[in-house]
């Protein structure tokens, strides 16, 4: 089963709504790969002993992880944190998220600077490349449990848009325009 992704409408309604265009304009996995987004479907019920997750972590050098339970009851300053996550930004490193429970939306910009909404739910693991403009919000369930993976020490520094001169953004744009390198196979 492929991940669900679509182009967003221009509405300013509650960001936790799906924001489908009318008619719905789905985005293919191939299009996500073209902009550097990778995806795996894993067994979230067995994440502690999943050989496929271990293989991905080893191949990509993810030697640190933590778990984030994101919901109003478990996060101090919940509304402010969610607002911060939903502010368009980039990171200097990949953003790796594995959904263990619940669901939410990662929004990324495509090559034409349009928003693509990616629904992540239990078992979905996505990698956003360094330098891609993105944001995150919960859906109307108001709950997600995510594993956050890192290479080396965890870094959560967001750089809010505009960041066209940031080295990670410049490298991302160069990779998009030159199609340099091929990402590790995902499914």
TrEMBL record:
Membrane topology: Peripheral membrane protein
Homology family: Belongs to the acireductone dioxygenase (ARD) family.
HAMAP family: Salvage_MtnD_euk
Pfam families: ARD
GO cellular component: cytoplasm; nucleus; plasma membrane
Main location: membrane
Annotated protein name in UniProt: Acireductone dioxygenase
Binding site for Ni(2+): 89, 91, 95, 134
One Gene Ontology term of the molecular function aspect: nickel cation binding
EC number: 1.13.11.54, 1.13.11.53
Function, as annotated: Catalyzes 2 different reactions between oxygen and the acireductone 1,2-dihydroxy-3-keto-5-methylthiopentene (DHK-MTPene) depending upon the metal bound in the active site. Fe-containing acireductone dioxygenase (Fe-ARD) produces formate and 2-keto-4-methylthiobutyrate (KMTB), the alpha-ketoacid precursor of methionine in the methionine recycle pathway. Ni-containing acireductone dioxygenase (Ni-ARD) produces methylthiopropionate, carbon monoxide and formate, and does not lie on the methionine recycle pathway.
Organism: Beta vulgaris subsp. vulgaris (Beet)
BP term (GO), one: L-methionine salvage from methylthioadenosine
Entry note: cofactor: Binds either 1 Fe or Ni cation per monomer. Iron-binding promotes an acireductone dioxygenase reaction producing 2-keto-4-methylthiobutyrate, while nickel-binding promotes an acireductone dioxygenase reaction producing 3-(methylsulfanyl)propanoate.
Keywords assigned: Amino-acid biosynthesis, Cytoplasm, Dioxygenase, Iron, Metal-binding, Methionine biosynthesis, Nickel, Nucleus, Oxidoreductase
Top-level class of the enzyme under EC nomenclature: oxidoreductase
Binding residues annotated for Fe(2+), in chain numbering: 89, 91, 95, 134
Record's catalysed reaction(s): 1,2-dihydroxy-5-(methylsulfanyl)pent-1-en-3-one + O2 = 4-methylsulfanyl-2-oxobutanoate + formate + 2 H(+); 1,2-dihydroxy-5-(methylsulfanyl)pent-1-en-3-one + O2 = 3-(methylsulfanyl)propanoate + CO + formate + 2 H(+)
Cofactor: Fe(2+); Ni(2+)
Entry-linked CDD domains: cupin_ARD (cd02232)
Cell location: Cell membrane; Cytoplasm; Nucleus
